[in-house]
C-alpha cells in the first residue's frame, strides 16, 4: 500500500507552497535538523515540535555561558559564546530542559 | 569633598540623596534602628572608619577572570586595579571574602591568574563558589584550591573579631525553573552550626547568589534562602553579603542587613532594565565607576556593620 506522505497530499491539493508558508514555527516538521538559539538568557523558540529522528542544535549567542540539560535525557557541556550542542531525538515524548547555570531559562522539545 | 561637611550626626534624607547624586557611588552606610544613614562619601567615610576601632574586612566578588567580551575585554586587568585599590586603603583590612565567580569558565589558567592577582593583596581570602567556578568537567578545580576543610559542596564557618562568619554555597543542583539552591544537607548543617551560639554574636552570612529575592524573573534569589534566614532570626545583628548581580543593592529587614557587591569585571543592568541580565556594555570612561569592592567595618556594641562600596574609579 502506498503511504500518503505530506508532500503527496499537499501536491494533490495544490497547496504545498501555501502550507509551507503558513505553517507556524511550532508545528511538527519532518526536517532532519532544527535550531534553537540562546539569546538574552532565553531559548528561542521556547517550544519546538519535531518528528522522531530530528536533530536539534542549540547555539549560545550570549556573552555568558549556558548549558542545555534535560534530566536523565541529555546534558551539554558548558557552552561559551557561539558554542553549539546537538542532540538527536530517537524517541517520542516531551523533553523539558533548562540551563543548569540559570535555571529560570527553560524550554521544551515535543517529539512526535 | 571637604567642602561637604555632614557633621558627625543627623544627616537628613535630602542631604543623603544629594550626597548620593553628587558622589554617584561610594556612600558609607550606617544603620540605626532600621534606617540607613549616610555618614558621607568615600574619603570622609574612610576617615571615619580609620578613626574608629573595630574590625574591617573586605568583600570582593565576580571577578570573572577569563571574560574578554565587549563589556570588558580585560577582566583580569580590572581585578588587578581593584586589588591595587585595596592595597592603597588607609586601613589594612583583617581579611577578604570573595563571593564567587572567581573565574568565567572554570579553566585552570583562569583560577591560576585570579590567584596570582588576588594574592597581591597579601590578605587571607575566604571564598565561596559562583556557578562560573563549577564548570570544569570534573568540578574539581575550585574544590582543589578552595575546598579544603569545607563541608559538602564547600560551605564552612569561622570566627573573626567577635563575628561569626558563614560561607554558603547556593549554586549547585539548581532546579529547572527555580532560583539559587542551598539544599537540605546544607540547611541542616547551618542549623547545627548556629546551635548554642549566643544571640548577641553578630553573624555574617555570605554566598554567591543573593539569599533574598531580588528579581526572580532573572533568577536573582535563592529558593530556600528563607530557611537559612529563619535560623538567624533570633540573632541581634545579621549581615548578608552576596554577589552575582554585579551591582550594589541594599535592604534592611528587622535585624538583617542585605547587601550585594559590585563585580570587578563587568556591570549588569538593574532588574528589568534590559532584555536580559547579561553583561552591560557601558562607555569605556564609565566602566570603572561601575566596578569595585566593598569594605565592611564592625564595631563592638554596634548592631549594624557599616558597609562602604568603593568603585575602582570615580
Helices and strands, with pairings:
The complex is a heterodimer of chains A (112) and B (314).
Chain A: H1 6-13, H2 16-22, E1 33-39, E2 42-44, E3 47-50, E4 55-60, E5 69-70, E6 74-75, E7 84-88, E8 93-98, E9 106-111
Parallel strand pairs in A: 1-4, 3-9
Antiparallel strand pairs in A: 1-2, 4-7, 5-6, 8-9
Chain B: H1 13-23, E1 27-32, E2 35-41, H2 42-51, E3 55-60, H3 75-87, E4 96-98, H4 108-118, E5 125-127, H5 141-146, E6 156-160, E7 163-167, H6 184-194, E8 203-207, H7 225-231, E9 238-242, E10 249-253, E11 256-260, H8 284-287, E12 292-298, E13 306-311
Parallel strand pairs in B: 3-4, 4-5, 7-8, 8-9, 9-11
Antiparallel strand pairs in B: 1-2, 1-13, 3-12, 6-7, 10-11, 12-13
Q: How would you sum up this structure, described in words?
A:
The complex is a heterodimer of chains A (about 110) and B (about 325). Chain A is mostly beta strands. In chain A, about 15% of the residues lie in helices and about 35% in strands. Chain A is built from two helices and nine strands; from the N terminus they run H-H-E-E-E-E-E-E-E-E-E. Chain A has a four-stranded mixed beta sheet with strand order 2-1-4-7, with no helix packed on it. In chain A, about 30% of the residues are buried. Chain B has about 325 residues and is α/β, with parallel strands linked by helices. In chain B, helix 3 runs parallel beside helix 4. Classes of the chains: A mainly beta (about 110), B alpha/beta (about 325).
Amino acid at each position: 500500500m502506498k503511504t500518503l506522505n505530506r508532500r503527496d497530499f499537499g501536491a494533490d491539493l495544490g497547496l504545498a507552497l501555501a502550507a509551507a508558508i503558513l505553517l507556524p514555527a511550532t508545528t511538527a516538521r519532518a526536517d532532519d535538523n532544527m535550531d534553537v538559539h540562546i539569546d538574552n538568557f532565553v531559548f528561542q523558540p521556547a517550544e519546538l515540535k519535531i518528528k522522531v529522528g530530528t536533530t536539534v542544535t542549540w547555539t549560545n549567542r550570549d556573552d555568558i555561558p549556558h548549558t542545555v540539560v534535560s534530566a536523565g535525557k541529555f546534558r551539554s557541556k558548558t557552552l561559551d559564546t557561539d558554542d553549539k550542542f546537538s542532540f538527536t531525538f530517537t524517541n517520542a515524548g516531551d523533553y523539558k530542559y533548562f540551563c543548569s547555570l540559570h535555571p529560570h531559562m527553560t524550554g521544551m522539545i515535543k517529539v512526535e | 569633598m571637604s567642602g561637604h561637611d555632614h557633621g558627625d550626626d543627623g544627616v537628613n534624607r535630602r542631604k543623603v540623596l544629594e550626597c548620593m547624586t553628587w558622589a554617584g557611588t561610594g556612600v558609607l552606610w550606617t544603620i540605626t534602628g532600621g534606617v540607613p544613614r549616610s555618614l558621607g562619601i568615600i574619603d570622609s567615610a574612610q576617615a571615619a572608619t580609620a578613626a574608629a576601632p573595630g574590625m574591617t574586612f573586605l568583600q570582593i566578588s565576580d571577578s570573572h577572570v577569563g571574560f574578554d567580551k565587549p563589556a570588558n575585554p580585560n577582566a583580569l586587568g580590572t581585578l588587578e586595579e581593584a586589588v591595587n585599590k585595596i592595597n592603597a586603603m588607609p586601613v589594612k583590612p583583617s581579611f577578604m571574602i570573595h563571593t564567587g565567580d572567581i573565574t568565567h569558565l572554570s579553566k585552570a589558567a583562569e583560577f591560576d591568574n585570579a590567584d596570582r592577582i588576588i594574592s597581591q593583596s597579601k590578605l587571607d581570602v575566604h571564598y565561596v563558589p559562583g556557578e562560573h567556578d563549577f564548570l570544569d568537567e570534573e568540578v574539581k578545580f575550585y574544590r582543589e584550591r578552595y575546598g579544603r576543610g569545607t563541608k559538602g559542596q564547600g560551605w564552612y564557618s569561622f570566627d573573626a573579631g567577635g563575628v561569626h562568619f558563614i560561607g554558603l554555597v547556593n549554586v549547585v543542583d539548581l532546579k529547572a525553573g527555580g532560583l539559587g539552591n542551598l539544599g537540605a544537607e546544607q540547611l541542616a548543617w547551618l542549623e547545627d552550626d548556629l546551635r548554642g551560639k549566643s544571640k548577641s554574636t553578630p553573624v555574617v552570612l555570605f554566598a554567591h547568589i543573593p539569599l533574598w529575592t531580588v528579581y526572580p524573573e532573572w533568577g536573582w534569589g535563592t529558593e530556600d534562602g528563607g530557611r537559612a534566614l529563619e535560623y538567624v532570626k533570633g540573632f541581634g545583628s545579621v549581615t548578608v553579603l552576596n554577589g552575582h548581580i554585579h551591582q550594589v543593592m541594599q535592604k534592611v529587614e528587622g535585624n538583617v542587613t542585605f547587601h550585594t557587591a559590585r563585580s570587578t569585571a563587568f556591570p549588569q543592568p538593574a532588574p528589568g532594565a534590559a532584555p536580559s541580565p547579561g553583561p552591560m556594555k557601558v562607555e569605556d570612561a564609565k566602566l570603572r565607576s561601575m566596578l569595585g569592592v566593598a569594605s565592611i567595618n564592625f564595631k563592638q556594641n554596634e548592631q549594624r556593620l557599616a558597609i562602604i562600596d568603593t568603585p575602582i574609579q570615580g
